Amino acid sequence: MVTIGIVTRNIHGWATTQLTRAIIELGHEPFPFNFRSIYTEICESGYKVFSNSVNLGEKLSALIVRPLGRLSFEQAFFRMDTLHLLENLGVPVINSPKAIEIAINKHRTLALLSKNGIKVPYTIVTENVNEAVKRLSFEKGIVVKPLFGSKGLGSFLLKDRDFAWRVLADLRYFRHVLYLQEFLKHGGRDIRAFVVGENVVAAMYRELPGSWKTNIARGAKPKPLKVTDEITEIAVKAAKIVGCDVAGVDIVEVEGEKYVIEVNSQPGWKGIQRVTKIDIAKKIVEYVVREKIRR
Fold first, then answer.
1. 146: domain range?
2. What are the tens digits of pLDDT across the range 212-242?
3. Domain assignment of residue 75, yes or no
């Protein structure tokens, strides 16, 4: 029996509960704990990382990371530093801190995907409003996204160049970096592929007719989707490029071509679980025990 930690914002959340159940069913010990319970003790001989007086470096055989949430820069750096410190103590962290840092940064993720042969939408990332407006075509529309964020929050669609200039200038006034993406007309539907290791364990369509946003959190409905070799090849490759063992890869289909929009390193699976008989939590835990656990 091994002890698998789950670090989360809410130890009673759905995904954490599912992982806890799966760990127990597979004969191991779950140790869910909150990010806010963590502290680091540093002395002349080194450091230790604790949660409520439990030495995590000694306790854990592996650690599964759930979403960090909306944070101040200090909180974000502290939580990521903690994951790095635990990894340096020999605790396997899933996903690795490096992978999480890449995936939460849309700019870096998309650049790496493109460099490694994954089709992505035409995108401009800049602090210069004039360059952005000059280089983009507004015929199809431009999606403006926060550089860091999820669930479609803070994203909006612009179709008028003059109005776009005003909006983007306002964003720059408040010191935002502009992440601007050509809108791909997907017909209110995209694909979420759930990657665990070398496999896509489940996939779904997310449908919201009449809307350009297809996030489950924004009201889209999950629909069953058979996992094809093409989806597996694209999604697993995208996850590997970012460095993720577990990932939710978002794909849109346009005129027979598939484009990767995002790689989520801390994906939820409540929506996709509704349209598959695969026990996704168990697949995650089985992978961790088989491939990542320290003995």
1. 123-182
2. 667 777 677 899 999 999 999 999 999 999 9
3. yes
